[in-house]
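Attaching the record inline, Q. Sequence:
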Amino acid sequence: MQRLLSVFTVGIVIALFAFAPLLAQAAGLDYYIGVLTRIMIFGVVASSLNFILGYGGMVSFGHAVFFGLGAYTTAIASFHGITNAWLIWLLAAAVSGLCGWAMGAIALRTRAVYFIMITMALAQLFYYFFVGFRYYGGDDGLQITARPVIGLGLDISSDKGFYLVVLAWLVAVHVLLARLKTSRFCLALNAIRENERRAQAIGYSVRQYKLVAFVIAAMLAGVAGSLMGMHNLFVSPKLLHWSQSGILLVMVALGGVGYFYGGILGALVFLSLEEVLSTHFEYWQIYVGLVLLLMVMVAPQGLGSLATMAKALKGKTLPQGEQHGA
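Structure, as predicted:
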């Protein structure tokens, strides 16, 4: 019954998101279609980071590099005349996945703070590579002349059409993550996160499991980056910078590390705060910092933990698997 209720709730939320462009147009607030599109794209990339952080305990400070690579793959494909959106998404996932495999193969030789530092260092190599790559714009970035063609009778040249495609990607990614959550692969990954040495002792190939998770997260972030490139019709090396990875980590921490909807919840709250505060204050980051400080005091495990805390206060038994991937 509870599962049916959850599915029904998710269906209502998706329906509300699907009708949001119509409501925005009716109210003369077309601008917010773009804001919601950006929130959903960051929801995808933050969820991919939450996957390796919540399940595998991997604190990557270089996750934005896959986001940026997906965006640059889209821009470079467009630069060379490729207009098929499906092919571009495939290329973005492949390029990001390949780089994720290379970065993971190096970074996963280390642990803890060394893993954080080496992912950040490798990501900065990619950042400075694109800064110096003048053929594709260098630090000036690269324009995308038009959104690619998706076919199937859909037109993503309009913001409304593109919004619906991004919503479809958001749902598809979370369906994939939901399937992964109950798989033996993720159960093994959970065991590795809890006690790596014990998992290794009972026969798990720790490094291989973590590497596969790292590549999956990189591919999802690459697709999100491709969507961001199509949304902005412009890419720049800033997308790969380590500070972008820091923002993604803040989103995940805000939403709740290991909570299934932690990534999208964190993206929704963080970008909404940015949207509201930046219109009133020049140094809006100070107020975001205060909100984060308040959240740490009230709900140190993120906003996703509030429902769990409410149930605990009522003395109810917590449902199994609510945390870390529920």
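The chain has a mean pLDDT of 86. The CA atoms of residues 51 and 185 lie 12 Å apart.

More tomorrow.
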